[in-house]
Amino acid sequence: MSTPLLQARDLHVEFSSRGRRARAVDGVNLAVGEGEIVALVGESGCGKTTLARTLLGLERPTSGTVLYGGQPLTYTSKALKAYRREAQLVLQDPTGSLNPRHTVYEAVAEGPRIHGMANEEQVVAEALSRAGLRPPERFFLRYPHELSGGQRQRVVIAGALALNPRMLVADEPVASLDASVRGEILALLLKLREELGLSALVVTHDLGLAWNIADRVAVMYLGRIVESGPVEEVLKEPKHPYTQALLSVLPESPERVVLSGEPPDPTRIPGGCRFHARCQVLASGAAALAGVDSRCRSELLEVLPAVPEAQAACYYADTMAADEAVVR
């Protein structure tokens, strides 16, 4: 991969929680290339949204670096304002994202006004048109309650497009929409990538969505990426037991994997593999047969690098891969 457009390098984000330090993001390397769509997937509470907010400069990392265009992010007001014109956030709840007292025109014009852009009406009209609201003038004076859920999400996307960004960070962009509308919004994001060369980081718990829209996928668990790679490789042949469990809920999955318990408290991340307490491979005895069960419980895994190839942070997967290589 050439110099990524957006990159996290050994990123850590911690918060105080009941006198303890919660490691919301606990060593993440992630890269999004020019014109690339990367899906960041995982259960609720795994750190996806915190990572996305940190990549946008809305949270400051405890340690590590966010790079944009190869340059470290600078946290002055002026630098962040310029950066946020380049990298825009699209939230999952369009109803909550839009002020009910503002018309569609005012909602989309807010960003261009903050950044002092000229030809405001033309900018708003072009953004609405690109977002699929045509003719745009028909929507100028409408209020959010007069729109469908899909139209409201298009207005939110238009508000981001009005600033001519190079990067979108979409946090569960279709989670609140009806199934019939989700495909339209996903098709819109793909169309924007094709027409404008936009890059996107799509945060989701839905691996089916990742399959339909992403070039690469990164699977996150308890503050760390545990598997990543090209979407077809990861989702067709997942190596990490956590990814396998997430995929098992899809309708076409031959076998359902039910994980025990909830993700551990991020103030008390377990030793060894952070997934071992819920791991179906360890519980079944397969890890013991492979001779890695003690490592799973006690030895810390290395943080995955930001590389385009498929990779997984799992002792059992490493052993299986080594055995396959010997057979070949």
UniProtKB/TrEMBL annotation:
The family database entries (NCBIfam families) matched by this protein are listed as: oligo_HPY
Give the UniProt keywords, A-Z.
ATP-binding, Nucleotide-binding, Transport
Look up and give the organism this protein is from.
Answer: Nonomuraea dietziae
- This protein is called Peptide/nickel transport system ATP-binding protein
User: What InterPro entries does the record tag this protein with?
Assistant: AAA+_ATPase, ABC_transp_ATP-bind, ABC_transporter-like_ATP-bd, ABC_transporter-like_CS, Oligopep_ABC_C, P-loop_NTPase
PROSITE patterns reported in the protein's UniProt record: ABC_TRANSPORTER_1 (PS00211), ABC_TRANSPORTER_2 (PS50893)
Q: Provide the organism lineage as a comma list.
A: Bacteria, Bacillati, Actinomycetota, Actinomycetes, Streptosporangiales
Gene Ontology biological process terms, A to Z: peptide transport; transmembrane transport
**Domain ABC transporter per the UniProt entry, residue ranges:** 6-247
Q: Does the keyword Cytoplasm apply?
A: no
What protein family is recorded?
Answer: Belongs to the ABC transporter superfamily.
Top-rank taxon, per record: Bacteria
